[in-house]
Amino acid sequence: MKTAKYAFACSLPVMAGYLVLGLGFGVLLASKGYGVGWAFAMSTLIYAGSIQYVAVDLLAGGASLIAAALMTVTVNARHLFYGISMVERYRHVGPAKPYMIFALTDETYSLVCSGTVSDGVDQKRYFFLVSLFDHLYWIAGSVAGALVGGVLPFDSTGIDFSMTALFLVVMTEQWRTTKDHRPALVGLGVSLVCLVVFGAEDFLIPAMIGITLALTLLRKTLQPHGKEASADVRD
């Protein structure tokens, strides 16, 4: 119970964001003529906020499976790099591992990799419960949005920016709670360079590759020392 309470408390910021963002997704989906069943199925089986928003237009526009697949890979390519950084943390989590890999969204990733858990908390169970809670928040918000959107008229203009807003909030919270900002600054610097070189439409994948290479090369320099290093080893 202590682990469950701790995971729930840590996931509250994500709950606040996911209920609102899921609501926006459900409203947008309903505005295109898709009902509650679609909202539930997409949020349960796809569970990727950004591509779900994109998928609404793909569905409404009658896009081919190939186009949808390519768009999905492009939008969610960053998760390849998330996965690489989580290999050690998820190595011994047990039978829940496939689900935890599936449920590794941006916000869940930020909670799982934010640092050590408090004393008396089962870390592996914490990883699982945070993943599950966040998933349930997203499903609840999406279904509620589809229900409301099917009854009340909404202007859906600008709703698709809500995922970006949540990501900025999560990043700000991590910045405030972490003393070492060097990895974040490296990521920001590489992203800005790629934005200038490749443009706004094509910079994401080069930026992810560049960040991975930069952090790999600077790993020894950025690695914590002393007590912090001991804590990381215990993780």
Could you describe the 3D structure shown?
This protein is an all-alpha fold. It contains 13 helices and no strands. 24% of the residues are buried.
> What is the H-and-E element order?
HHHHHHHHHHHHH
- Note the main sheet: none
Q: Supply Rg.
A: 19 Å
Could you tell me how far the N terminus lies from the C terminus, measured between alpha carbons in angstroms? 21 Å
Helix/strand-derived category reads mainly alpha
Q: Please, what is the average pLDDT?
A: 81
Q: Roughly what fraction of the amino acids lie in strands?
A: under 5%
Assembly annotation: single chain
Low-confidence stretches: 226-235
Instruction: Assign a percent range to the helix content.
Output: over 70%
Basic shape: globular
Q: Total helix count?
A: 13
Tally of DSSP β-strands = 0
Which key terms come to mind for this protein?
235 residues, 13 helices
Task: List strands and helices in order, with pairings.
Blueprint: H1 2-31, H2 36-45, H3 49-60, H4 65-75, H5 78-85, H6 97-102, H7 106-112, H8 123-151, H9 162-177, H10 182-198, H11 204-217, H12 219-222, H13 226-234
Concise structural overview:
Helix content is 74%, strand content 0%. With 235 residues, the protein is an all-alpha fold. The longest helix is centred in the first third of the chain and has 30 residues.
